[in-house]
């Protein structure tokens, strides 16, 4: 029994057989370690299920070993999860609790974004149409002023474009970020 506990603690100390070779603060590596621990726990639970389903007196020691392995791996998983900061929306948790597919949440979010995008596009198109209509009406009433306005707009647009290129700013106002590898 002592050798079983020693092997369990060796597994726990070894992070479930996962070696840390890079930065322990790397969120992607932390997530991968948790995922590997979850997969190992699922395998151990399956082994435990098989042992329990065919239980007899002779399988008592393997049952205890598998129980210790599950507990040890759950401890390892909990320790690894402390370095992994993932936020899951409550809607996803509620869907899982209701026995539904969490992909429904993603689908609903995307469909909501598409609907809001269409509404915003409609408003933008309406304002563009209004602007065009107003300029046409103004041009008929004040042709010289509209021509001066268009010249000012063209000069301003050219200046903004020149500044954006000089400052590496994208046309939508975002700044280009150089990725360092």
TrEMBL record:
Query: Looking at the record's lineage, which domain of life comes first?
Result: Eukaryota
* A GO BP annotation: regulation of transcription by RNA polymerase II
Tell me where it mainly resides: nucleus
Q: Where in or outside the cell?
A: Nucleus
The molecular function GO annotations come to:
transcription coregulator activity
Listed Polar residues bias regions: 1-22
Segments for region (Disordered): 1-30
List the keywords (alphabetical). Answer: Activator, Nucleus, Transcription, Transcription regulation
> What GO cellular component is one of the record's annotations?
chromatin
| One Pfam family per UniProt | Med10
Q: Any idea what job this protein has? A: Component of the Mediator complex, a coactivator involved in the regulated transcription of nearly all RNA polymerase II-dependent genes. Mediator functions as a bridge to convey information from gene-specific regulatory proteins to the basal RNA polymerase II transcription machinery. Mediator is recruited to promoters by direct interactions with regulatory proteins and serves as a scaffold for the assembly of a functional preinitiation complex with RNA polymerase II and the general transcription factors.
Q: What quaternary arrangement does the UniProt entry report?
A: Component of the Mediator complex.
By sequence similarity, the record places it as follows:
Belongs to the Mediator complex subunit 10 family.
- Know the name of this protein? Mediator of RNA polymerase II transcription subunit 10
Tell me what organism the protein belongs to. Nelumbo nucifera (Sacred lotus)
Q: Which gene encodes it?
A: LOC104593484
């Amino acid at each position: 029994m002592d050798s079983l506990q020693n092997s369990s603690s060796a597994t726990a100390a070894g992070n479930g057989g996962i070696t840390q070779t890079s930065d322990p603060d790397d969120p992607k590596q932390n997530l991968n370690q948790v995922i590997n621990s979850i997969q190992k726990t699922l395998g151990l639970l399956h082994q435990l299920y098989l042992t329990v389903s065919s239980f007899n007196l002779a399988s008592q020691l393997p049952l205890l070993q598998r129980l210790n392995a599950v507990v040890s791996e759950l401890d390892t998983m909990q320790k690894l999860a402390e370095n992994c900061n993932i936020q899951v929306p409550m809607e996803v948790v509620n869907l899982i609790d209701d026995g539904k597919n969490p992909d429904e949440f993603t689908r609903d979010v995307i469909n909501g974004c598409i609907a809001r995008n269409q509404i915003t596009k409609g408003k933008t198109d309406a304002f563009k149409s209004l602007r065009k209509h107003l300029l046409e009406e103004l041009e008929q009433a004040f042709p010289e002023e509209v021509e001066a306005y268009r010249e000012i707009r063209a000069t301003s647009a050219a200046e903004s474009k020149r500044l954006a290129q000089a400052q590496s700013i994208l046309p939508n106002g975002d700044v280009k970020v150089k990725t360092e590898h």
